[in-house]
Design brief:
Length: about 160
């Protein structure tokens, strides 16, 4: 019972933080011109993201009160997965460094490859295939579709 109350408390805090962040974003976005769906202003996108984040936080709080299976209760006391944390943070740092000095393609390849290695079910081959696929999708969407001003390759 104590494990379940700890899990509920953890999900309540996580969901509450997301609700607060979402509502704060939506309130701050209201200070910009929101516009309409036909003519969106600069505050429309942050407003939508803030509301969605608050709704997602509410769903997490609600899920915290749902009955849990016995194996989920045992997972509460599991040690943190430091490999996963390290790979995700390392992937983000690699994206920042390679994005500045190498461009979108090497930065995205490194981000996805390093982060995928944080999952113990991924092999080096599956992480490499995933990183190539996500990079191709990212180039298609951000460079060609949205014409984002982020060079694909940069030397130096």
């Amino acid at each position: 019972m104590q494990q379940q109350s700890r899990a509920v408390r953890r999900e309540w805090w996580a969901g509450g933080a997301m609700i607060a962040l979402g509502l704060g974003t939506a309130i701050h976005a209201a200070s910009y011109n929101v516009g309409s769906l036909a003519r969106m202003g600069p505050g429309m996108f942050p407003m939508i993201l803030g509301v969605l984040l608050a709704l997602l936080g509410a769903a997490i709080v609600r899920a915290g009160y749902a009955p849990q299976a016995a194996d989920e209760e045992a997972e509460v006391d599991a040690a943190p997965d430091w490999r996963g944390w390290g790979c995700i943070i390392g992937g983000l740092l690699a994206f920042i460094a390679l994005g500045k000095f190498g461009g979108l393609v090497p930065a995205t390849l490194a981000l996805v490859f390093i982060s995928a290695l944080g999952d113990r079910q991924h092999t080096v081959k599956s992480a490499a295939l995933l990183s190539v696929g996500v990079t191709l999708l990212g180039v298609a969407v951000f460079s060609w579709g949205l014409q984002l001003q982020f060079p694909l390759f940069r030397w130096g």
